[in-house]
Amino acid sequence: xxxxxxxxxxxxxxxxxxxxxxxxxxxxxxxxxxxxxxxxxxxxxxxxxxxxxxxxxxxxxxxxxxxxxxxxxxxxxxxxxxxxxxxxxxxxxxxxxxxxxxxxxxxxxxxxxxxxxxxxxxxxxxxxxxxxxxxxxxxxxxxxxxxxxxxxxxxxxxxxxxxxxxxxxxxxxxxxxxxxxxxxxxxxxxxxxxxxxxxxxxxxxxxxxxxxxxxxxxxxxxxxxxxxxxxxxxxxxxxxxxxxxxxxxxxxxxxxxxxxxxxxxxxxxxxxxxxxxxxxxxxxxxxxxxxxxxxxxxxxxxxxxxxxxxxxxxxxxxxxxxxxxxxxxxxxxxxxxxxxxxxxxxxxxxxxxxxxxxxxxxxxxxxxxxxxxxxxxxxxxxxxxxxxxxxxxxxxxxxxxxxxxxxxxxxxxxxxxxxxxxxxxxxxxxxxxxxxxxxxxxxxxxxxxxxxxxxxxxxxxxxxxxxxxxxxxxxxxxxxxxxxxxxxxxxxxxxxxxxxxxxxxxxxxxxxxxxxxxxxxxxxxxxxxxxxxxxxxxxxxxxxxxxxxxxxxxxxxxxxxxxxxxxxxxxxxxxxxxxxxxxxxxxxxxxxxxxxxxxxxxxxxxxxxxxxxxxxxxxxxxxxxxxxxxxxxxxxxxxxxxxxxxxxxxxxxxxxxxxxxxxxxxxxxxxxxxxxxxxxxxxxxxxxxxxxx
Length: 693
Hints:
Layout: H1 3-25, E1 30-33, E2 50-53, E3 103-106, E4 109-112, H2 161-166, H3 174-200, H4 204-210, H5 212-238, H6 252-266, H7 271-283, E5 295-303, H8 309-316, E6 322-327, E7 338-345, H9 350-358, E8 361-362, E9 365-366, E10 369-372, E11 379-382, H10 389-409, H11 431-434, H12 440-445, E12 460-462, H13 467-482, E13 486-487, E14 492-493, E15 507-510, E16 517-519, H14 520-538, H15 546-551, H16 557-567, E17 570-573, E18 576-579, E19 584-586, H17 589-599, H18 601-619, H19 650-653, E20 660-661, E21 666-667, H20 687-692
Parallel strand pairs: 11-15
Antiparallel strand pairs: 1-2, 3-4, 5-7, 5-10, 6-7, 8-9, 12-16, 13-14, 17-18, 18-19, 20-21
């Protein structure tokens, strides 16, 4: 081995030992490469590759040097700009780059690593010393390797107050320690929310909830569906389909037919098609060409959070009979994976489609498809005592509040003169049933107090009926079921029902049993449960207070735009300023500012949208975040008794506890070992001692 080669290997080893320390001090991209061979050494260097810091090194072939037989492990066709996330697989970690399109060539194969952000040049910086969040201050930047999820998908463990005090000065006072610990908890919370936002901001489910433009488009589509449902309800009411209908178990067949007609009208079926469907259902002869409200569906058990709805439609929509897709909300306990329902026409070959999907993987994730069965029972029953007049009065009051709240939320039946007033015709005569009537004058003349009730709440009484109230309540229940997808007697809202396989599948009605009595205790319990269930729907969606949002890191739109302008206004010298976005030079920073606002207004708008995107996430009181892991107490280990010394009963060892012994009458209050007990040495190995003899 020559001296030059020995010096080269020593230098390589020295840098390899120090690379861990350098990584902690610097936060710049690390590229795996090889040094060119030393001067005077022929052939390629066969030593291990080391880590080169900075921009990607050029290929040795481009400079005319040797080292042609061993290409570098990674060649970046588009070098990632400074300050943006990168790909790091050296220790099993991967940070998805959402800013630039990278192409990696490994062993001759070329593959795409991450998507490309449209309308953003990949080789231009926009913020100084940032990682992934636009406009993030250098003091609050996110580490490049975002290891935000703790063990098993939980938040990292926050320090206890005792552990926090160990990091503070010994002279700290009690008040200062409490204030600093409160600041630490607030900063810990802020970092967790910030990192969660960075990790999930590019996922479709997250953008549907909080991105200003995407969320507004989603809301407009939902309002369009609700308006369509309202139009169908009014059309069915006009034709008299609700006149002779009662939501009782006896009318199950009529109720199912009503649900199917509503679905057919939602799908723009003509009256002729509905009549043909009625005749065929009566004769039990269903053909493939006949339009039917029934569908066939496939259930996907697991769906990766990064899979979009359009990608799933592109894969599953190629099979004949495809209609729609419904995707559930992600589950935190399942690492934010989701579920999905694929809906096909009734006579589609769903078993064959399901078999083909079993061999399919999207983004290295299995779908777990299974055939979804039809609903076993579409009309389900609740206890009969809900027919009682007192219960119906309470239900009428509750459903009236729900209709008023939901109509105002989706801007239905609003009065142009007074926005808070609804013009829904179904609520016009409801107040006549909600006013309580008593015989106060008659009770006063007879010397009775109508306020006193001497009835036993557990005493059962016959159920009281009111036909007029029942008819009014049934129409309100059908309205809230058809228009707002709320099953009143089940106290449940069916979310995204228009995308599900059954667009109006289940309805709970009043049951019929032999029990025709009810007690005041039953009525009170039922009313309290109803109020508790619908409290969330009645409560307007409130946002987090301004003081709390400020502690969580609320961003100001003006400040973020100013940071963006300053980051793209670089001073090269006296009266010489550069705009890195366009590469043009100006004499003063004011000209650069005007240039950015005139030529790059789309980027300025993007900064504003990103700021609103982040703030909207912070203001949501039900925002998704990593769950906190609750540590379970470890079970106490049982004290094991040595098998060589069997435990004797208490009486045999010392006596009976509690009985006086001795001259002074001392009582034994605990069982203790007799000190005169013979010691057993049978478990001692003395073979080595005998070997010495």
